[in-house]
Amino acid sequence: MQVFLITGGAGFIGANFVAHLLDTYPDYRVVVYDKLTYAGNLDNLRAVWENPRFSFVQGDICDRPHVEQVVKEHGVDTIVNFAAETHVDRSILNPDAFIQTNVYGTYVLLEVTKDLGLERFHQVSTDEVYGDIPPGYRSREDDPLRPRSPYSAAKASGDLLTLSYFTTYQVPVTITRASNNVGPYQHLEKVVPLFTTNALEDKPLPVYGDGRQMRDYMWVGDHCRAIDVVLHKGTLGEVYNVGTGQEIENLTMVRIVLDTLGKPHSLVQFVEDRPGHDRRYAMDIQKIRALGWEPRYTPQEAVAKAVRWYVENEWWWRPIKEGEFQDYYRRLYGQRKVYRTGLE
Ligand code: NAD
Ligand code: DAU
After folding, report:
1. 191 CB within 6 A, ligand 2
2. Bridge partners of residue 176, in order along the sequence
3. Pocket around ligand 1: residues whose beta carbon is below 6 Å from it?
4. Which residues, listed in sequence order, are joined to residue 240 by a DSSP beta bridge?
5. Atom of ligand 2 nearest to the CA of 208
6. How far apart are the CA of 76 and the centre of ligand 2, in A?
7. Side-chain half-sphere of 268: how many Cα atoms within 13 Å?
8. Using one digit for the tens of pLDDT, what is the confidence trace for 241-262?
9. Which CATH class is domain 3-182+218-242?
10. Is the pTM of the predicted complex or chain greater than 0.85?
11. Domain boundaries, the chain
């Protein structure tokens, strides 16, 4: 394992993982392969751009001849697949690209891994594939998949294809299923960067429904270390859950955002809920703990740390907020009913 194709490496988690690999392993080379959709951003790769062990290729994981050509040209032996359409709300507005990239794109990468005899294909997946989890229960890796949004259904399909290539063709695969990541370079459509930047501009924070949904907010660096551990110590054909093992209500997350910034709770607006909104995700993380991995941050610490990054890095988020994002924001939030404002 020495030459990595990091698909989706210009996105949030992919870019953090690229920096992690180059910093941790002085002999590894990294090729980022990214379509640069609205979510891809070369600013995310500024810190590694001049590194002689780094290269960037713009391309679509659905384009098999191109992926194959890049893998051969760079002598890639390992693919880590971050490339995906990732935002649940956008999957509700228009699922098409989700099916293309998250299902067909994953299939293309598996085919290339099989036909070129690569050492490893790692699929970066999500806790959302388990669906809505009742209070008191934690998902385990062999639980049935019950995805409930077009996004999570497409990701679950990617997971099942990945496992089928292990069983049928003995392709060397591993999968990680992570909880909600937070940290540097997360797109402003996701809740923590959205709420932080809205609060910094004294704009309302649109909390869906009653805000009592539960999420396991994890620091992105913890996720990157987990993928690293699974690549080096994981068992082929296996799935590993990755999270802090604790979850907090969105209302708690909102309080942390506002209190970290010293902004008033009156900025909160309770708005019409997301259709099919999963109330709770919660995972059992014993399996990855057994490989020697531990999260370093609790959800509370991770959210506060992420908020501070956005405060210090306006150069990064300001151009996004002023671009096509404004149309998206109007489309998603413009007509949404507002039920009440402020936290008790
Ligand atoms: P992101 O939306 O920030 O980035 C996705 C990247 O993929 C972008 O750079 C985009 O340009 C690229 N991309 C999209 N379609 C492509 C295509 N067809 N070909 C090549 N590149 C393409 O996403 P993220 O939040 O960094 O998530 C990365 C991965 O981690 C995804 O697979 C996601 O499902 C998974 N995941 C994310 C989270 C989270 O909290 N963000 C949690 C668990 C799992
Ligand atoms: O759980 C892992 C998943 O986390 C990843 O697989 C996805 O790619 C990633 O987008 C994320 O999905 P969520 O839907 O959980 O993330 P999002 O940031 O969109 O929302 C987090 C919670 O906040 C969720 O309960 C919905 C709520 N929310 C979100 C937005 C954007 C709001 O209340 N208001 C909002 O405006």
Report:
1. yes
2. 124, 240
3. 7-8, 10-14, 34-37, 39-40, 60-62, 82-86, 101, 105, 124, 126, 155, 178, 180-181, 187
4. 176
5. 33
6. 33
7. 22
8. 999 999 999 999 999 999 999 9
9. alpha beta
10. yes
11. 3-182+218-242
